[in-house]
Every structure is written in C-alpha cells, then in structure tokens.
Design a protein that fits this description.
Blueprint (H helix, E strand, L loop, with lengths): L7 H5 L15 E3 L2 E3 L8 H30 L1
Antiparallel strand pairs: 1-2
C-alpha cells in the first residue's frame, strides 16, 4: 500500500498555489430582477403538460374524498 497523508493540508502540497475557485454563470437582468440563465430548453406546451400531470393526481384524490364525504353526510 502507498502511504497516504493523514492531514488534508498535506495533500494540497507546499507549492503555495491555491486551488481555482469554481466559475459560475453570470446573472442576467430580466424585467428589473436578477435571474440565472435558463438551462431548461423544454417547450412551453410540454412544461404545461408536466405541470398538469403533477397536480392531476392530488386534485382527483381530494375530489374523491370530498365526494365520498358529501355522500356519507347526505
């Protein structure tokens, strides 16, 4: 086996060179507020279908529970 350094400081080395900091995408100004550049290239209609399908199940569940509750109370 190789000898691994015990301390993390020993792994960096004694060269004095700091590790490079991460580079992030610059923020852009859209309608007066700062926003990050969008990486979502999904068409608007597909996002609408995803949003609808995300909430369809809970909406049907709540509607069913309300309908059964109304039927029992009535």
């Amino acid at each position: 086996m190789t000898g691994l350094p015990a301390e993390p400081r020993e792994r960096i080395g004694d060269s004095g060179v700091k590790p490079a900091s991460p580079r992030h995408d610059p923020l852009s100004r859209i309608s007066g507020r700062l926003t990050a550049p969008s990486t979502d290239r999904t068409p608007i209609y597909e996002r609408a279908v995803q949003h609808l399908s995300r909430w369809a199940g809970p909406a049907v569940l709540i509607g069913t529970v309300l309908l059964i509750g109304w039927w029992i109370v009535r």
